[in-house]
Amino acid sequence: MIIQLANAWCNVRISPHGAELKSLQSVAAKQEYIWQADPAIWERSAPFLFPNVGRLKENTYFYQNKKYHLGQHGFLRDQDFQLVEHTENQAVLQFESTEETQKNYPFTFRTTVTYTLRDNTLVVAFTVKNLGDKKMYFSYGNHAGFCAPINPDLTFEDYAIELLPHQRRKRIRLTKEKQSDLEHPLLEESNRIALTHEKFKKDALIYQTEGETQIRLYSDKDPRQLIVSYEGFSYVGIWSPYPTTGDFVCIQPWCGIADPIAATQQWTQKPASQELAANQEFTREFRLTID
User: Using CA atoms, how far apart are residues 46 and 146, in angstroms rounded to an integer?
Assistant: First the structure.
């Protein structure tokens, strides 16, 4: 089953598997903005990352003296969600923890993903509610891939990414083991990233963000663009595969980050992790605007 939303500006398609966005098209230009999940390059389009962002050291963590294992980016992207509300311009999907998820993530929770079309903007809201009687810890993010080029007559290298507002930002590098080097951030003055595939030879470009942030994917050769906007996310990851390459770039708002080099592997000490008391909710949203 594919869930569809539509208005005068956009057509949207969503899969209940992972509550994953599969298509965002402009009505006027009939242009696709979402990567169409070629399994030979990258088999996903816009997965949610939960309960961890990035890789855990040795794919392992400890909680209350017990050892657990989680793969890169967690398990939520591979779960089947239930559609609980659906109108022409909104869809609400939910997933609740199971005995299976609790084997390697010992918390009881419900996640709700809400997609809402507002003119030429798709609002993507994510809520997790702690259904247990103890504090829960988690990270959250999204890994949406966007077509680059947007205009199929152009090339990947014709595009750039702009980070707004313009300011000096910390960039976090990843090791070969995909761990975060939090102790040696790079301070970067430039807010423009000219896209080349080689730029991702050492994996994602990760920037600290705070407050209201916009990430713009654009070309000087074409008026069409995409803007990712959000508040309340600690990092944004910019990624495209290498050396196998594809005509897309991922813009990933994150509340969390891969384990650092000196990770203790204690779940309650994970950097940038979120804490949620019993019966409380955590909500974040980001917005995709197409022009």
Answer: 9
